[in-house]
């Protein structure tokens, strides 16, 4: 940098608090150049910073608390000591210690005392002080009153985002990278540990097995269609998860597994609706071949409507939710699409093929379509008449 005499001298480093500093910052859209004096209060003295709307006000402000953290241990021989709330030096048994480390003055005096001193100097001259991080001026408020307790507020025409960003920068510092305005953020859920994955898949397997067992007991022969369809749906889902993991980095989380487990019930519901439609048609006296087609025409509309609602719910969750809930919505939507595909291209053709066999077409008791299963009475026996006509 060049001094007032026009000579080139080394610029002070941003982390050198004892040297003056030339820095630039923004005030709105205007670039401002600052000539800063040496640092008076170190950032380590800042106890807290938060953004909010003060009571009775309507504008956002940043509240800062300087030097009020007195519970810091100091190595004084032979025992460690701390500062209590009254500024006294106490040992580990809360006994007041008279001796103080030589050369440190009052070790329990925090940054609030320095803040009181500098604020009293600035308030009379209406001078500004700067808050600097990594050589960049974050804020340059004007001192309006003497601060006695280290607690003050930075006010101005802050938006909520600006106040929050300033408070976070004061508390945690800033990353040495720049962000554009048009930045996309994405919450990525953690990958599953082995025991969590095992537990989730075990729960899914138990649910799948219970659905299969119930369908076999209730629908008998038609239950085999359910078993085959669920196996196909599970295989397609597994293949899609692997494909998306390789192609798009899809990570299976516990909410995602929950979405897949719920899909088992959605898929089974498709079969129940279709089979019950077939039974309704057969109760009206239609053969199984006819009932399969007419029942499908009615069940198809119902399933499309129900799956559309499920798909819309999944899309809403994926778009508007964050984190783990987004994974649940994605898994639910994927499973819903797979359910429709399996129903149209596997279940329906398989039932039409089974209708050609006598076991199902004749209403065998193992088919799940017998008169007893349908709730129909047995056909009445024909009355025998004696030979020779009426007596």
Automatic annotation (TrEMBL):
GO terms in the biological process aspect are: protein transport
The record, for Pfam families, names: SecD_SecF_C, SecDF_P1_head
Q: Where is this region: Disordered?
A: 1-21
Q: Which residues form the Protein export membrane protein SecD/SecF C-terminal domain?
A: 183-355
Its keywords, alphabetically, are:
Cell membrane, Membrane, Protein transport, Translocation, Transmembrane, Transmembrane helix, Transport
Give the superkingdom in one word. Bacteria
How would you describe this protein's topology in the membrane?
Multi-pass membrane protein
What residue stretches are annotated with the SecDF P1 head subdomain domain? Answer: 111-177
Cell membrane as a keyword of this entry, yes or no, is: yes
Please give the InterPro entries that the UniProt record associates with this protein.
SecD/SecF_arch_bac, SecD_SecF_C, SecD_SecF_C_bact, SecDF_P1_head
Its localization reads:
Cell membrane
The GO cellular component terms are: plasma membrane
Q: Where are the transmembrane segments?
A: 197-217, 224-244, 256-275, 304-321, 327-346
PANTHER family reported for this sequence: PROTEIN TRANSLOCASE SUBUNIT SECD, PROTEIN-EXPORT MEMBRANE PROTEIN SEC
Name under which the protein is recorded: SecD/SecF family protein translocase subunit
User: Species name for this entry?
Assistant: Nocardioides immobilis
Q: What is the lineage of its organism?
A: Bacteria, Bacillati, Actinomycetota, Actinomycetes, Propionibacteriales
